[in-house]
Amino acid sequence: MERYIDKTLTEYSPGELVAYKQNGICRIEDIRSESFGDAQARPYYIMRSLTRENTVVYVPADTTRSGMHRLLTRDEIDTVITQTEYSALRWIDDSKERAARFTEIIAAGCRSEILWVVKALSLHRVKVEKSGHKFYISDERILAAAKKAVVDEFAFVLGISSDEVIPYIMKRAAQTDIQKMER
């Protein structure tokens, strides 16, 4: 299977929609030179959040580590869900190592890997709770961050509510499982 590569570039245009870290879906309104404090002027993307009312975000346009990316299409979302089932990522038993690695995965922004983290932690939570133990708070925080990293974008692109995203993912993943069994 061909690996899906995020089309994450550092050049965007006014009017373009992007996903930006914890600010969700944003529209780039302008690209202009700004100077904050004593810092030298540099180009910034001026963005307005579509998911957080009255939020304006300034992101340096001259960096490759901006944390924003173009929105996936519906077909790309389905491809990402399918690829999650073929991930080479593996579970890490040590909770500190797991937290560090999963945080890196979320920061990197590869949606298929982030979905793998959601799936792995969700399954781990069920296993831990069935055994009468508590789900680590660090795992809970990472799971919430991983879901946030994909839910807003998927809901927006698919035209569904945020509450419908995880069921949509589960349904598509189940279809992938059925297709694998038929081969």
What does this structure look like?
- It is a single chain.
- With 183 residues, the protein is α+β, with helices and mostly antiparallel strands.
- It has 2 domains: 17-70, Thrombin, subunit H; 74-182, Methane Monooxygenase Hydroxylase, Chain G, domain 1 (Up-down Bundle), CATH 1.20.58.
- It contains 5 helices and 5 strands; from the N terminus they run E-E-E-E-E-H-H-H-H-H.
- It has helices at residues 74-84, 95-108, 111-130, 137-158, 165-182; strands at 17-20, 24-34, 42-49, 56-60, 68-70.
- The protein has a 5-stranded antiparallel β-sheet with strand order 4-3-2-1-5.
- A hairpin with a 6-residue loop joins strand 3 (42-49) and strand 4 (56-60).
- The longest helix has 22 residues, at 137-158.
- Residues 1-10 have low confidence and may be disordered.
Number of strands: 5
Helical run tally? 5
Q: Look at the structure and give the mean pLDDT.
A: 85
Strand content: 15-25%
The biggest sheet, with number of strands, parallel, antiparallel or mixed sense and barrel status, is:
5 strands, antiparallel
| Structural domain tally | 2
